[in-house]
Amino acid sequence: MNPAPDPMTLHPVAGQRRVVFLKPLVSNPNIIVGEYSYYDDPDDPTAFERDAVLYAYGPEQLIIGRYCAIASGVRFLMPGANHADLGPSTFPFGILGPPWSDTTMDLVMSAPSRGDTTIGNDVWLGYQALVLPGVTIGHGAVVAAASVVAANVDPYTVVAGNPARVVRRRFDEEDVARLLRAAWWDWPVGLVTQHARVIMAGEPAQLELIATREGLLPGSERARSHAFDANVAAAALKRPYLSQMPFRSGTYSEAVGGSSPPAGLGKVLENDACQRASCSWS
Ligand SMILES: CC(C)(COP(=O)(O)OP(=O)(O)OC[C@H]1O[C@@H](n2cnc3c(N)ncnc32)[C@H](O)[C@@H]1OP(=O)(O)O)[C@@H](O)C(=O)NCCC(=O)NCCS
């Protein structure tokens, strides 16, 4: 069997320029993407950071796991999009320069942050889905076309509409737990390649069995060594450590695998004008 595509290939599909793997593409230190996550755009997928990640002025990060499918027109609205809402006007006087910046810049900078945006592994974001600031989308979720995701999405749920609501759970609770334990996206890619058909169309119990047999269940050394760790990914790219990671005290899987928001999410940088002062407002 041929090896899997190289996750550092920009255009993994021969002769197809509209698809890019994001990992080799992104250069913004606040965007961290796992292997094999791809973005499709008929015009210019290499403009992902400009076209799909909007208002990323602040220190908040966009973290996307492995094996995510991101359709054309998907937009991530980052927290820099939000204006301060402190009194009668939301007009951001300060960004327009003196004299307004002299008197109101601190107010502009005090817009509360909703923290990092975190997309799990194996998430499918449909055509023109809009992901609002600070949202966490769990592993295996599906976001229907043109949905507006305003709140966290549980793993393995299909959400649709504006605001996006759950329209279907892809598996029952026990199977979701099995899938989260199996965490196939953290397997060595050779094993993923070997079992791609079961991953796509098998039973959750089969995946759990493979993970058990291979010593890849959570807590095992082997699982740890293959797990997607955004801090490690950032360090490998010689980027600063991710001080604002919502899952700083836990693992990435814990952050996007659970149904409740990770501790600290939505609280980071609240009213922290100094942190935002380094933003570029161009
Ligand atoms: C989500 C999707 C996969 C369908 O999932 P599904 O579980 O089979 O959903 P169904 O078609 O049975 O619809 C379930 C409900 O969600 C609603 N729904 C589905 N897609 C919706 C959408 N994009 N917006 C709003 N509501 C939607 C349906 O109307 C239905 O509502 P009802 O229960 O009140 O009748 C599909 O609707 C979709 O959006 N696909 C995205 C395709 C895409 O963007 N591809 C880009 C290339 S990767």
Protein traits:
alpha/beta, single chain, 15 strands, 2 domains, 7-stranded mixed beta sheet, disordered C terminus, 15% strand, binds coenzyme A, 4-stranded parallel beta sheet, UDP N-Acetylglucosamine Acyltransferase, domain 1, 282 residues
3D architecture notes:
This protein is of the alpha/beta class and 282 residues long. The protein has 2 domains: 19-170, 3 Solenoid (UDP N-Acetylglucosamine Acyltransferase, domain 1), CATH 2.160.10.10; 174-276, no CATH class. The chain has helices at residues 48-51, 100-108, 173-182, 189-194, 196-201, 204-213, 221-226, 230-236, 252-257, 273-276; strands at 19-21, 31-33, 38-40, 53-54, 62-64, 69-70, 75-77, 117-119, 124-125, 130-131, 136-137, 142-143, 148-149, 157-160, 165-169. Strands 1-3-6-9-12-14-15 form a 7-stranded mixed β-sheet, with no helix packed on it. A 4-stranded parallel β-sheet has the order 2-5-8-11, covered by helices on one side. Strand 14 and strand 15 form a beta hairpin. The protein is globular and about 65 Å long. Residues 238-251 and 259-282 have low confidence and may be disordered. Bound molecules: coenzyme A (COA). Coenzyme A is lined by residues 69, 71, 126-127, 142, 144-147, 158, 160-161, 167-168.
